[in-house]
């Protein structure tokens, strides 16, 4: 899920025309090494924190189907995580950095969530909204000043970006669908040897047995005997003062 959010953010910045103008979008930490390695104007989208939104945790799950509509398993409900990014820009002059940072800020604030067309992998399959927030609230993650101190670099203008994304639950595989009727073996436990209608001894029921059949069912179809079938309605009941 994390790499899918990274890719969606990269595509979002690319749609703003940054890559067409030779601006690189990287996910490296904004350290002195990054400043020494870069050869073009650079936008760094550095992931520095991950926190679960426990208030959105749900129990249960949903059925997973294959291309033919057959249930192949049950997937647990997704869990939501907040991804915190530190967005910085790197150019040769402070004026150029401020101009580029303003363009990035305009791009990120133009949408409240990552567009569905940019989502890939599990995010696209879940079809849930990945919300974006520009440091709108304190969620217990490290502050920006603490991040710069940990990186060992000097403080620079930056954007504190938060993305709230779902993590797909684990899939519990299901068994194959029922395609045959139930086979029943019967035996009189009161006798040592079973007898048929003529009085002859019958060996123990270790043969093929009797297969139960649904009344009026000739071909179970592609879904087997698990397919729904029409049932007769129960006889009507007479209510006091009413009709049947």
Largest β sheet strand count, sense and barrel closure: 5 strands, mixed
Order of strands across the main sheet: 1-2-5-7-6
Distance between the first and last residues' Cα: 60 Å
Q: In percent, how helical is the residue content?
A: 10-25%
Globally, the shape reads elongated
In short:
With 244 residues, the protein is α+β, with helices and mostly antiparallel strands.
Give the SSE map:
Layout: H1 2-15, E1 24-26, H2 32-37, E2 42-52, E3 61-65, E4 71-76, E5 79-90, H3 94-109, H4 121-126, E6 131-134, H5 144-151, E7 159-167, E8 171-173, E9 183-184, E10 194-195, E11 201-202, E12 210-211
Describe the structure.
With 244 residues, the chain is of the alpha+beta class. The model has no long low-confidence stretch (mean pLDDT 80). The longest helix has 16 residues, at 94-109. It folds into two domains: 2-173, 2-Layer Sandwich (STM4215-like), CATH 3.30.2000; 177-228, no CATH class. The relative contact order is 0.16. The strands form four sheets. It has a five-stranded mixed beta sheet. It has helices spanning 2-15, 32-37, 94-109, 121-126, 144-151; strands at residues 24-26, 42-52, 61-65, 71-76, 79-90, 131-134, 159-167, 171-173, 183-184, 194-195, 201-202, 210-211.
């Amino acid at each position: 899920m994390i790499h899918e959010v990274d890719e969606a953010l990269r595509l979002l910045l690319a749609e703003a025309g940054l890559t067409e103008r030779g601006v690189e979008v990287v996910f490296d930490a904004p350290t002195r090494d990054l400043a020494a390695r870069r050869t073009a104007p650079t936008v760094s989208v550095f992931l520095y924190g991950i926190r679960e939104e426990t208030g959105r945790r749900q129990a249960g799950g949903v059925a997973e189907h294959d291309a033919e509509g057959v249930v192949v398993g049950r997937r647990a409900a997704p869990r939501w995580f907040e991804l915190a990014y530190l967005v910085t820009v790197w150019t040769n002059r402070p004026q150029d950095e401020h101009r580029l940072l303003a363009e990035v800020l305009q791009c990120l604030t133009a949408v409240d969530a990552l567009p569905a067309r940019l989502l890939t992998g599990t995010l696209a399959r879940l079809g849930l909204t990945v919300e974006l927030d520009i440091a709108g609230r304190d969620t217990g993650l490290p502050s920006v000043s603490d991040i710069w101190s940990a990186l060992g670099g000097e403080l620079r203008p930056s954007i504190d970006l938060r993305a709230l994304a779902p993590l797909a639950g684990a899939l519990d595989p299901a068994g194959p669908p029922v395609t045959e009727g139930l086979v029943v073996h019967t035996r009189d436990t009161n006798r040592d040897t079973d007898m048929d209608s003529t009085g002859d001894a019958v060996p123990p029921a270790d043969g093929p047995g009797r297969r139960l059949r649904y009344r009026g069912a000739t071909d179970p179809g592609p879904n087997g005997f698990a397919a729904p079938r029409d049932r007769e309605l129960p006889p009507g009941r007479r209510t006091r003062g009413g009709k049947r």
